[in-house]
Amino acid sequence: MKTITSIESNENFSNNVQAWQLKNMIGETVTIHGNVYKIRKMHGFAFVLLRSGGEILQCVYEETRTDFPLEKLTEECCIKAAVFVKEEPRSRRGFDLQLLHVQILSLPARHSPVVINQKTVNASLETLLNYRPITLRNQREAAIFKIQEALADGIRRFLKEQHFTEIHTPKIVSEGAEGGTNIFHLKYFEQDAFLAQSPQFYKQMMVGVFERVFEIGPVFRAEKHDTSRHLNEYTSVDFEMGFIEDFQELMAMETGMLRSAMASVKEQCPEEAALLGVRIPEITEIPCLRFQEAKELLQKEGCSQNNPMDLDPEEEKKLCRLIREKTGSEFVFVTHYPSAKRPFYAMNDPQNPEETLSFDLLFRGMEVTTGGQRIHSYETQVEKMRQKGLNPEDFSSYLMIHQCGMPPHGGLGLGLERLTSRLLEQDNVRRACLFPRDIHRLTP
């Protein structure tokens, strides 16, 4: 018995096969690669579970058919293996992989600090995140981000079909898009600069070029929150549309976008969705009510009105529960937020200037989207800036588009981690972020 140490010197290794190709190669001998996930010793043989390309493959070790001792393999060692793909109806995949020859590419220098080869990682959230490069190797933890990928893919495909152009905007900027103090300062050579709170100004600028644009990228908020719903860096799905008649066109577009995202999860991630027990919502029409109507409904239900300008987290949860009971929908649009709450670029309602033509989308108890119609008139924009105590001269590059003519337009921003977290019904949005950044965490 010996361990193969050089692929080049052994004719038993063929070209590498990816995990997804194996179902079409029953009866063939092929080469696969991966990390040993788990070894299950049975009577007279062993199952060697191999993590390959994010999938778990079941290999069968039998001493009489394999030219190396099982003791050579350890959990998390990296290998290449020549295997015979054997039909096996009892296997979930319909086949087993009979181990023939192995090349050990690397051996771990230490035992894993966390047990990752069980159904779940039995550890606190803090431990889960401290050892994130390792805990993400767990099948359930990895499944979260395959689902997140499918959501983003469904969003991107839908927007492309609707003739949106994908753009990539700067993340180092000269002024904040959202105002306030929740902005990260940095030194940019000899100038002061900031990390972008959103691509707001740039996507509005690009409406003047392509009419419909979108971006999926990072944004940064210097909010000193330590809650289950906040991140200081998150992935924002932004789109902006020109020549709109009404801000409800934006809500209709988002409804279609979310249908596509959920369909993408169903299509691309059936195994991951089953593993995590995901309830994928059926989206037909999303109910809609005005902000003041929502407040009145909540007041009737006994909710204290602590913030007259916004919905607090408990109000969001209660409102979603009420809407679901009344309509069956797990989504709800809330429109016409107070002007005092919305940014300077939000268009006021001509019928009531105290309200804006804006909305939030709530999903399973949490706000996941903010959007609305923007001001396109130069004079109106300058006036609102001054009303909010801002100096228009500080926004000269942004106001250039208004000076040179802009169509009626609007858009939205959706938090991808929040959408993922609410879809998976997690207790903390950090679970839906690969490497979270919050007020305590800058590594890994």
Automatic annotation (TrEMBL):
<dbReference type="GO" id="GO:0140096">
    <property type="term" value="F:catalytic activity, acting on a protein"/>
</dbReference>
<dbReference type="InterPro" id="IPR004364">
    <property type="entry name" value="Aa-tRNA-synt_II"/>
</dbReference>
<protein>
    <recommendedName>
        <fullName>Aspartate--tRNA ligase</fullName>
        <ecNumber>6.1.1.12</ecNumber>
    </recommendedName>
</protein>
<feature type="binding site">
    <location>
        <position position="367"/>
    </location>
    <ligand>
        <name>ATP</name>
    </ligand>
</feature>
<dbReference type="InterPro" id="IPR045864">
    <property type="entry name" value="aa-tRNA-synth_II/BPL/LPL"/>
</dbReference>
<comment type="subunit">
    <text>Homodimer.</text>
</comment>
<feature type="binding site">
    <location>
        <position position="221"/>
    </location>
    <ligand>
        <name>L-aspartate</name>
    </ligand>
</feature>
<feature type="domain" description="Aminoacyl-transfer RNA synthetases class-II family profile">
    <location>
        <begin position="145"/>
        <end position="444"/>
    </location>
</feature>
<keyword id="KW-0436">Ligase</keyword>
<dbReference type="GO" id="GO:0016740">
    <property type="term" value="F:transferase activity"/>
</dbReference>
<dbReference type="GO" id="GO:0006422">
    <property type="term" value="P:aspartyl-tRNA aminoacylation"/>
</dbReference>
<keyword id="KW-0963">Cytoplasm</keyword>
<feature type="binding site">
    <location>
        <begin position="415"/>
        <end position="418"/>
    </location>
    <ligand>
        <name>ATP</name>
    </ligand>
</feature>
<feature type="binding site">
    <location>
        <position position="178"/>
    </location>
    <ligand>
        <name>L-aspartate</name>
    </ligand>
</feature>
<feature type="region of interest" description="Aspartate">
    <location>
        <begin position="200"/>
        <end position="203"/>
    </location>
</feature>
<feature type="binding site">
    <location>
        <begin position="221"/>
        <end position="223"/>
    </location>
    <ligand>
        <name>ATP</name>
    </ligand>
</feature>
<dbReference type="GO" id="GO:0017101">
    <property type="term" value="C:aminoacyl-tRNA synthetase multienzyme complex"/>
</dbReference>
<feature type="binding site">
    <location>
        <position position="374"/>
    </location>
    <ligand>
        <name>L-aspartate</name>
    </ligand>
</feature>
<feature type="binding site">
    <location>
        <begin position="229"/>
        <end position="231"/>
    </location>
    <ligand>
        <name>ATP</name>
    </ligand>
</feature>
<dbReference type="GO" id="GO:0005829">
    <property type="term" value="C:cytosol"/>
</dbReference>
<comment type="function">
    <text>Catalyzes the attachment of L-aspartate to tRNA(Asp) in a two-step reaction: L-aspartate is first activated by ATP to form Asp-AMP and then transferred to the acceptor end of tRNA(Asp).</text>
</comment>
<feature type="binding site">
    <location>
        <position position="370"/>
    </location>
    <ligand>
        <name>L-aspartate</name>
    </ligand>
</feature>
<dbReference type="InterPro" id="IPR004523">
    <property type="entry name" value="Asp-tRNA_synthase_2"/>
</dbReference>
<dbReference type="Pfam" id="PF00152">
    <property type="entry name" value="tRNA-synt_2"/>
</dbReference>
<dbReference type="GO" id="GO:0005524">
    <property type="term" value="F:ATP binding"/>
</dbReference>
<dbReference type="GO" id="GO:0003723">
    <property type="term" value="F:RNA binding"/>
</dbReference>
<keyword id="KW-0030">Aminoacyl-tRNA synthetase</keyword>
<dbReference type="GO" id="GO:0004815">
    <property type="term" value="F:aspartate-tRNA ligase activity"/>
</dbReference>
<dbReference type="InterPro" id="IPR002312">
    <property type="entry name" value="Asp/Asn-tRNA-synth_IIb"/>
</dbReference>
<keyword id="KW-0547">Nucleotide-binding</keyword>
<comment type="similarity">
    <text>Belongs to the class-II aminoacyl-tRNA synthetase family. Type 2 subfamily.</text>
</comment>
<dbReference type="InterPro" id="IPR012340">
    <property type="entry name" value="NA-bd_OB-fold"/>
</dbReference>
<keyword id="KW-0648">Protein biosynthesis</keyword>
<keyword id="KW-0067">ATP-binding</keyword>
<dbReference type="InterPro" id="IPR006195">
    <property type="entry name" value="aa-tRNA-synth_II"/>
</dbReference>
